[in-house]
Amino acid sequence: MRTALTGAAALGAGLGAARPATAATPNRDAPPRPVTPAEALRELAAGNRRWRAFRERHPHEDPTLRRTLATGQHPFAVVLGCIDSRVPPELVFDQGLGDLMTVRTAGEVLDEAVLGSVAYGVLELAIPLVVVLGHQSCGAVRAAVEAEESGTRLPAHMQYLVDQIGPAIDHGKEGDARIDATVSANVRLVRSRLAAEPELAARIGTGELAIVGTRYELTTQAVHRLA
């Protein structure tokens, strides 16, 4: 296990990565899969345009591909998103089986398991893009803001979530505006933490990897990139 997880991943602007030798051979009839950060970003953007226009293709679900995936996988992006039931990455980006490696935690909170999962995708599968996907009206962010304001502690392991989100709270705003601003600030914080991981940073530096912060708007179904 230790050997298998000795790689790491990150997201940024445009990057490229070679397809790993362990990846499954893609269907000859299928369009070429993204192998650089820029190509991966374009594919996700195109999928989100289809989603919000109600023109989803629901790609890569056919019997031939399912048989191919039994021998290996070659996803082109890692998406670290929230557990919110309204924001499933495969639907939001209109992708199918074998396209995305998704990691989901409340508020995109990081821990060792999440970091190891992202690292596995980048280092072992040569995934060229990591997307941190926050969203409008995030309940975990609201809980963190309200807990700080009231001084109360949350039960069980939920306190860990608000403690991790706490540094991102935007104290320059009040009420719902504070919560909304903190959603974006939290995405930026998580993205910067991932990008600071040494092995991920090294791949970003060579252009093999990009780590990108994004936000999904429930009211418009659009995903947009955060600076």
Automatic annotation (TrEMBL):
Where does this protein have compositionally biased stretches of type Low complexity?
A: 16-28
Q: Which InterPro entries match?
A: Carbonic_anhydrase, Carbonic_anhydrase_sf
Q: Which cofactor does it need?
A: Zn(2+)
Q: Where is this region: Disordered?
A: 16-35
Q: Which domain of life is it from?
A: Bacteria
Q: Name one GO molecular function term.
A: zinc ion binding
Q: Which first-to-last residue range defines the signal peptide?
A: 1-23
How many and how are cofactors bound here? Binds 1 zinc ion per subunit.
Q: Does the keyword Translocase apply?
A: no
Question: Which keywords appear in this protein's UniProt record, sorted alphabetically?
Answer: Metal-binding, Signal, Zinc
Query: Which residue spans traverse the membrane?
Result: none
Keyword set includes Zinc? yes
| Binding annotation for Zn(2+) | 82, 84, 135, 138
Write out the function statement from the record. Catalyzes the reversible hydration of carbon dioxide to form bicarbonate.
Q: Which family does it belong to?
A: Belongs to the beta-class carbonic anhydrase family.
Would you tell me the protein name for this molecule? Answer: Carbonic anhydrase
Specify the species: Streptomyces cahuitamycinicus
